[in-house]
Queue: 4 jobs
Job 1
Amino acid sequence: MPFSHWSAPVADAPVDATVRLPGSKSMTNRALILAALADGPALVRRPLRSRDTLLMAQALRALGVAVDEDGADWRVTPGALSGPARVDVGLAGTVMRFLPPVAALADGDVAIDGDPRARERPMGPMITALRALGAEIDDGGRGALPFTVRGGGAVEGGPVTIDASGSSQLVSGLLLAAPRFEKGVHVRHEGPPVPSAPHLAMTVRMLREAGAEVEIGADEWRVAPGPVRGRDWDIEPDLSNAAQFLGAALVTGGRVTVPDWPAETTQPGDALRDLLARMGAQVSSGPDGLTVRGTGAFQGLEADLRDVGELTPVLAALAALASSPSRLTGIAHLRGHETDRLAALVRELNALGGDARELPDGLEIRPRPLHGGVFHTYDDHRMVMAAAVLGLAVPGVRVENPATVGKTLPEFTDLWTAMVRPA
């Protein structure tokens, strides 16, 4: 059955909107893991409800944790972790990397699988690390999904060396469960630099807020064994999902405000303030939130995006519409995301008349007049968002499978249409 297509709305005038975003996926799934391992109940306030977070909640329920609706919140009551259980990770990196260390603490087998593309995403380092820490995993020698964690009710823990250059989630997954391991965990990274440092900072901060003892050094993290405190979590708006909305102000010469932008945060999306300003936006913070104003013209961007790779698709779309070339580097790891994002962006931008090429670790984009056409999205929510940005200025952009935004922002097309074509 062919995918449906969505005609991305063209902006006939500068946008002028306030866009209230749902909660951070990254914070929600970390809070769910910490609440599941805690010594008492927790309330996760204003969580994101999307495919990725619903899969995490269901995975924890399968292991014996109660995750109940409480108005707009989730109430999490820890239980004895047990199998047999089956877990579907979908295409969620946070679920496929955060859940296996928790499953190793269960008493019984936990079978873990996901979407076809999930079987291609880097999991070998996690499987090897868990075995080194004392877990038993049957992966048929694949080093990838699907596999079964044969939980024995406890994990010894201790020192482990891992190459986390493919994803910082490999380190975060080990750290989040580490307080419950008998010896804690001392993770050392060996290999090319770990991407997405802000997400590691988020993991460390939330562990400490839950009472865990965490020490960090150069490419190493140590979490001591001990209880995880049951506490309530307030989830910030998802700042990475602000990228396309704030970018719309740049493209149209308009104004977009995102309320409740935190004054201090570990979210990678906070880098948008600097990145969009470097492209020519006027960026300001105030009691109403973060506001971006476009001036009617904006230039390209030269930036190392290693720490904020998830912003790449929208920044690449902006670059294709800018007045000068862009060079986005430090993002070779995006080849192992929901799709090979570098190849996909080059293919789709060039199919609309653009001039993009892959670099060993990034993209080079030279602006050219673009035309309409089908923008394929490869089951990748960020590709839908990039296509929407292009559609603001390019008539006839038809976006394949817009429903894939359900991964992190199910209401995206409604929010986008309301911003571009207010009632």
Job 2
Amino acid sequence: MEQKVQTYFQLKQQQKEIEQQLSVLRDEIVAYCAEQGVYETQVGGYTVKTVLQHRKEYDDQKLYASLPDPDIWRLLSKVDSHKLKSLIKLNVLSEEQISPACTLKQVTLLQVDKL
């Protein structure tokens, strides 16, 4: 069992290092695409594609203040965009009610495929 724990620890360390390297490379590739003014390009034998997405982020205090009924907060307990979407679909909340608590964050996704 000690060997398995040791191997697990070592692999987790490698995973952290790899994720850090991937983050740096991702940022460099996204910056390159932005500099070139392209969302899709070919580099060597690879297709590189960036996709811009907008994600909503909510402020707990502002959201709580915008809720019509404090009991709804118990349904959320912590801001969860999936739960919020469900409450909006059920017409328990409206987009207008919670809009003061929401900010849009632009996220760039990166996809690299081998040709």
Job 3
Amino acid sequence: MKRCMFVDDSSVIRKVAKRILGGSDMVVIEAASGLDALEMCAADMPDIIIVDGALPDVAAVDLIRRVRAMESPIRPQILISLVELDIASIMRAKRAGAQGYLLKPFNRPQLLERFRTLKIAA
């Protein structure tokens, strides 16, 4: 079973994602801050991480780099989540180790399609 972590300070975004993706084939875990996410990744690395591009406590690029630096048998797929298309932010995230981006707010078809393009069962 795949584990997906949504790192976002918005409880609404986290809950919507959990409702869309949660099911028999995926467990969705939530982190309200970058520091919470880092602690959770150190304890049990998820398969997929969606990182808010505007976290108040840790820059998304720093969080991505820190996750990539952790020793783990799991190398998660990472997306940065943005409220607008910002090529510079996407490129910084990719250089840090992200595979791509997700625009928010998202709906069910958009989120499921994004996961399909990453070849992630959702």
Job 4
Amino acid sequence: MTALAPAPDGTIQLATVKVRHLKLPVTLAIATALLALLFLFVPRNGISTFRLSDPSSTIALPNVSFPTAVTCWVLVGFLVLLTLWAFWDSASYRRTGLWLPIVFSLLAVFAFLVWASAGGLVPVTGLLFGALSLSVPLIFGALGGVIGERVGVVNVAIEGQFLFGAFSAALLASITHNPFVGLVGAMVGGVLVAFVLAAFSIKYLVDQVIVGVVLNVLVTGLTGFLYGALLVPNESELNRPVRFTRWEIPLLSDIPIIGPVLFNQTFIVYLMYITVALVAWGLYRTRWGLRLRAVGEHPQAADTVGIKVNTSRFWNVSLAGAIAGIGGAYFTLVSVGQFTKEMTAGLGFIALAAVIFGRWDPIRATLAALLFGFATNLQNLLTVLRTPIPSEFMLMLPYVVTIIAVAGFAGQIRGPAAAGKPYIKG
């Protein structure tokens, strides 16, 4: 970074100030130490087996086995080397490349799986398929959060958009017997919640976080009331939505390991692929994205070049609500198959954490959502493998990963400058 510094002759000159970034290496060191302590005080012996293909796979791959104890400590050695690398970068005033935390995370997860599966079997394809399935609503919510905060509005109401989208999808898909109508209804439901958020935070200048929290409570109460008063007495007519079925893509679905995970999915998952690509491309490569980022970073400057700041915020928050509503539709049109009270279970807040962890970038936020989905599915696998970890900690695992991710990595970056700040035209 640069700063002003006095020269010997009394003039003021620009000087370069070097800054050490210690948060990443310290986080890696803590994670390595925790794994080492786990392997030391709760050792597990035997053979850890990973199944790379299912019986239905076109190309069958053999199972891969590792000696548990030896493999765990070898992987800890690699984690130590990566941690030292990060400390060396910090001591040299260099920023560590993104590849290092990614490789570290993969090796750490692999080491933990080797330890957990001692004497057992890890179905790799099933683990990844479940992780992607649990990540779908988080990804849609995170994309909605990215658009909202990039335009200057903190979208705390993702949870409410999920819940109202799920309710609308279940109701309309049950009435029309058409999941696509339910999907459109979910988008409309998400837009309605976003409309209220935008109206109060942009037009009436109410604190955005407070409006978002109130909306979450309001939608939770409203959908709970409508569920008891409308859906429960008429369950067969109003709460039996037609669900999306899987569409297998020829050839691509035959790719070992990732083929069944990525290319034997429902319409909403394929729509997710397209949405991530469009938002990532549009945010950085189009006029719409340039204006959106300008409004979120410096609304006064955007206003001077003719951009209608509040109008832009209003419509982009509505777009964010539509995208989050699709995430809500996934619950009732794919995952569960009917609406239940508070079925989103706080996932909207995890999606908001993915936005922060992903540095307000659609691709990074998507990867963060995938991480949280993987942690949730890992909880289920560890229960099946009967690891010596208390079941209460298993339930905490996704939220612990969320806290570690946000506290450990997101503290290094700054969000959009105008996020959460109302714009009053002078």
